[in-house]
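Continuing the series of single-chain predictions for the mutant panel. This is the parent chain; the variants come on the following pages.
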Amino acid sequence: MNYKTFETERLLIRPVEEEDAEFILELLNTPKFLELIGDREVRTADEAKQYIRKKMLPQLYRLGFGNYAVVRKTDGELLGTCGLHDREGLEGVDIGFAFLPQHERMGYAYESALRLKQAALENFGIKQILGITSKANLASQKLLLKLGLKFERTITLPNEEEEILLYRFSVEEEEE
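Parent structure:
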């Protein structure tokens, strides 16, 4: 099946694929990812390929959207990921993002997340977008607010201990 890709002026946003294993391995093991998002216990390229196959691709196949690789158009470099996630414990689709440290603070996360928010509403018929982040992740909190999500409450996801922040954007609220 052919899955949608999206573009912005600077970025190509395409579904993550198994060939991205080395990049995913690097991203999942950056100090910031480990501290603020969590340890996915992926330590080798083979484990990264398995992670993509078991954790990322099934949702894409099931719903037609999922985790996307964010690629800079000028040189084809993989910068990070941005995705629309159907996550256990959340009633709605969660927008998430993670970038390699050298590509942070350049507007790529906002640019890709804004484009995926638009795709969620226009291409996938999603009426409500959620965002979750740790209390310590101030950059993520600011980005969710900039994307138009509003802080709602703290929650704890199934099989997790840490209380996290839940943000929400709803089409109905925007129309009022």
